[in-house]
Each structure stands twice: as C-alpha cells, then as structure tokens.
Amino acid sequence: MKSERIMAFVSYLYLIGLLVAYLNNNQHKNSFVYFHIRQSLGLWLSFFLLGYFVGSFDSWMITLSFWGCFAVLIFYGIATALSGQMVPVPLVGKFYQNLFKNIK
C-alpha cells in the first residue's frame, strides 16, 4: 500500500508527476492511484483554464484568492492520498471523477 500512496502523491506534482504516475500505474492497474490521477488531472486542467481568465482581471487580490483556493484543493488531495483515502476534493471532486471515468 505504501507504493500506491507514493504514486498517488506523485500524481499531484504538476503535469510531469501526473504523467509519471499514470505511466507507472498502467503496469499495476491500481484503482486507488487512478482515483487520485483523475483528481489531479481535473485540478490542474481547471487551474490552467480558469487561470487564463483570472489573469485578465489584473488584480492581485483576485489572483491571490485564486491561487489560494487551488493550493488548498491540491493540498487536500495530497493529504487524502498520503492517508490512503479515496475522498473526492470538495466542490469539484465528483465532477472530475465522472468526467475522467474512462481513465482506468
């Protein structure tokens, strides 16, 4: 179980960690790791997509709030991965699981 926790943690480390976790998990087919890969993929894609629009406001308060929100969500995902739980990220976790359900 320790190697699965490590791969789930690695999936939250930006896009390279996500790619490493996905390619490594293709050999083992662990549902716990795939759960966190889907969460991480959804968080990072949302971060980049929404970050483009948040940047157009040209306001440090809005930008820092945006970064803080995503930092909390990513740290929550990391904490659940390291504790060995399959808990969806608040607000958007179930949406990500349904959206990327083909990643197995």
Explain this structure to me?
- The chain is mostly helical.
- The chain has one domain (2-99).
- Helix content is 77%, strand content 0%.
- The protein is built from 5 helices and no strands.
- The longest helix has 25 residues, at 31-55.
- It is elongated, with a radius of gyration of 14 Å.
- The two termini are 18 Å apart.
- The model has no long low-confidence stretch (mean pLDDT 90).
Report the portion of residues in β strands: under 5%
Q: Cα-atom Rg, whole angstroms?
A: 14 Å
**Average pLDDT across residues?**
90
Shape: elongated
Helix content: over 70%
The number of E-state strands comes to: 0
**Distance between the first and last residues' Cα:** 18 Å
Count of separate DSSP helical elements: 5
- What ranges have pLDDT less than 50 throughout 5 or more consecutive residues? none
What is the H-and-E element order?
HHHHH
How is this structure best summarized?
The chain is an all-alpha fold.
Describe the structure using short key phrases.
104 residues, mainly alpha, 5 helices, 0% strand, elongated
Helix-strand layout with pairing:
Layout: H1 2-10, H2 14-28, H3 31-55, H4 60-83, H5 93-99
Helix pairs in contact: 1-3, 1-4, 2-3, 3-4, 3-5
